[in-house]
Amino acid sequence: MRAVVYRETGPSSVLEVVDREVPDPGPGEVRVKVVRAGVNPTDWKFRSGAAMAYDEVTPGQDGAGVVDAVGEGVTGLEVGQRVWLVLAQHERAHGSAAEYTVQPAARVVPLPDAASYDLGASLGVPAVTAHRALTASDGGPSRLSPGALDGKVVLVAGGAGAVGNAAIQLARWAGATVVTTISSEEKARLAKAAGAHHTVNYRESDAQAEILAVAPDGVDIVVEVAPAQNNALDLAVTRIRGTIAIYANNGGDEVTLPLRATFSRNLRYQFVLLYTLGQDLVDAAAEDINAAVAAGALRVGEESGVPLHHYPLESLAEAHDAVETGAVGKVLVDVG
């Protein structure tokens, strides 16, 4: 089989297409024939500088394809079933950037019949992260479903990003009023296509005033990508006992909190990292995500605010570079 590997960290040029034996699943494992793989910022960040835990690594946390073989003891998955992957390369040497990947059954999720492989490969990191950000609030729902966020206002920072887009779509499906900050008219168009009710251009307007015009008592949940830059705004627009859910460190590695202004509002800062989420929360997210997909509420494509950028497996280095340099939308790799 064809696979992409790297044996040392560094720029995308360390990625190499190789031929490897098709792996066999062990007990509790599933072999998936990969049709499409997703590329996320975490992929290039690990490749560029994280310590090598294995002699050879195949990158890729997300993907979609067809079950090709099942190991002993696997239930609920069968050969020929369409599936999507989550955490495919977490604590494993080989992820989704290969024609076949062997995964623990818990990381292989049935793909609803109406969903494309493009959508399946776009779900893992973005949608599970967004789900956790939306379900970690004080007094909020622990699961998402239609009506779960009725009466709530959600502020999504950077609504044109992959996680931001998934958060917009999931929050709207669950009944929330969705406000998102954007930096251009093009990104506003994409956020509206995803379902945002209100967009706020933070470069050209008084973002605080515009957000509070929608939510005079403050927003209930902030889905935050750049806390170092945005904490002052978040503090100004989040309601008492609101939640600021932080899933990335865009724009700076440190954030300073004004203590009295923060604790006087009984705010909750919820940090979100997929790798330490725990299987119970990943399972809950996958179930709710599939419900949203089946309902047609979670989508990809230009018309849904998620332009798709396809690369062949042999061009995985270019796909990594596209994500690293800020491609808007979802970068996918055509494998099978």
What is the gist of this entry?
Residues 10-333 form the Enoyl reductase (ER) domain. The protein is α/β, with parallel strands linked by helices and 336 residues long. It has helices spanning 41-49, 117-120, 124-134, 162-173, 185-194, 207-214, 227-237, 259-263, 279-294, 316-324, and strands at residues 2-5, 16-19, 29-39, 62-70, 82-85, 100-104, 108-110, 153-157, 177-182, 198-201, 219-224, 238-246, 268-271, 308-312, 330-334.
Written overview of the protein:
This protein folds into two domains: 2-122 and 306-334, Quinone Oxidoreductase, Chain A, domain 1 (Alpha-Beta Complex), CATH 3.90.180; 127-274, Medium-chain alcohol dehydrogenases, catalytic domain (Quinone Oxidoreductase, Chain A, domain 1, Alpha-Beta Complex). The protein contains ten helices and 15 strands. The chain has helices at residues 41-49, 117-120, 124-134, 162-173, 185-194, 207-214, 227-237, 259-263, 279-294, 316-324; strands at 2-5, 16-19, 29-39, 62-70, 82-85, 100-104, 108-110, 153-157, 177-182, 198-201, 219-224, 238-246, 268-271, 308-312, 330-334. Strands 3, 4, 5, 6, 7, 14 and 15 form a seven-stranded mixed sheet that branches. Helix 3 (124-134) crosses helix 4 and helix 3 packs across helix 9 (279-294). Residues 10-333 form the Enoyl reductase (ER) domain.
